[in-house]
Amino acid sequence: MAIIFLNGCTSAGKSSLAKALQEQIDEPYLLLGIDDAFASLPQRSHNNPEGFFFDRDDRGLVRLNFGAFGLATLKAHHRAAAAIAQSGVNLILDEVILTPELRKDWGQVLKGLDVTLVGVHCDLAELERREKERGDRVIGQARGQFDIVHKDMVYDIEVNTSQISPEETASSIIDFLAQNPSRLALSQMAKTED
Ligand SMILES: Nc1ncnc2c1ncn2[C@@H]1O[C@H](COP(=O)(O)OP(=O)(O)OP(=O)(O)O)[C@@H](O)[C@H]1O
């Protein structure tokens, strides 16, 4: 079954876009994302060096980091997503690819599946405006992810949500899907260099 894989920074508009896609595509798609993996953690694994924690790199940028249990959680999430599609259900994935290792893991786990890779971009100023307005996100996270989330990614289609609504963005992806039957980007996901 088909997977529409949305990758972008926090506040890029992935969840809003995913919901618009669910509404606009005739066939039903389930929705799953990295936030579901975070939500399934025990509370003590948040802000924990074994689980997930925020820190600053040498440039002072906020990074979402993880320890052994955090990595195992993300890899389990990747395999759960693949299993959903393999069981015969369409899936939209709402993801933030945090490291080259995780990018490669996605590429390996999804190999052979019908995956459309969508780069969800947004200008930094607008990301930071949204981050502040939401009130429930760690400030600085969007800037910290801006340089790394799309690094070495190859996409089937890229969108920029800075100035267009989730509904219009969803329409452009649906038009792309209708006009482009073959998908090329996934084969690059596991291959690219660190
Ligand atoms: N196209 C858009 N135009 C204007 N605002 C938007 C757009 N898409 C999303 N937003 C707003 O930006 C904020 C973040 O949106 P959303 O939750 O969809 O982002 P996200 O990429 O899923 O973020 P996260 O990864 O942190 O969950 C919300 O307040 C949402 O209403």
The secondary-structure class comes to: alpha/beta
Classify the oligomer.
Answer: single chain
Shape, principal axes of CA atoms: globular
The low-confidence parts are: none
Physical arrangement of strands within the biggest beta sheet = 2-5-1-6-7
Proportion of beta-strand residues:
15-25%
**Taking Cα atoms only, what radius of gyration do you get, to the nearest Å?**
16 Å
**How many H/I helices?**
8
Give a quick set of tags describing it.
194 residues; alpha/beta; two-stranded antiparallel sheet; 8 helices; 7 strands; binds adenosine-5'-triphosphate
Description of the molecule:
The protein is an alpha/beta fold and 194 residues long. It has a single domain (2-36, 88-189), classed as 3-Layer(aba) Sandwich (Rossmann fold). The chain contains 8 helices and 7 strands. It has helices spanning 14-24, 34-39, 68-86, 100-109, 124-134, 141-146, 166-179, 186-189; strands at residues 2-7, 30-33, 52-56, 62-66, 91-95, 114-121, 157-160. A hairpin with a 5-residue loop joins strand 3 and strand 4 (62-66). The model has no long low-confidence stretch (mean pLDDT 95). Adenosine-5'-triphosphate binds next to helix 1 and helix 5.
Helices and strands in order:
Blueprint: E1 2-7, H1 14-24, E2 30-33, H2 34-39, E3 52-56, E4 62-66, H3 68-86, E5 91-95, H4 100-109, E6 114-121, H5 124-134, H6 141-146, E7 157-160, H7 166-179, H8 186-189
Parallel strand pairs: 1-5, 1-6, 2-5, 6-7
Antiparallel strand pairs: 3-4
Helix pairs in contact: 1-7, 3-4
Bound molecules: adenosine-5'-triphosphate.
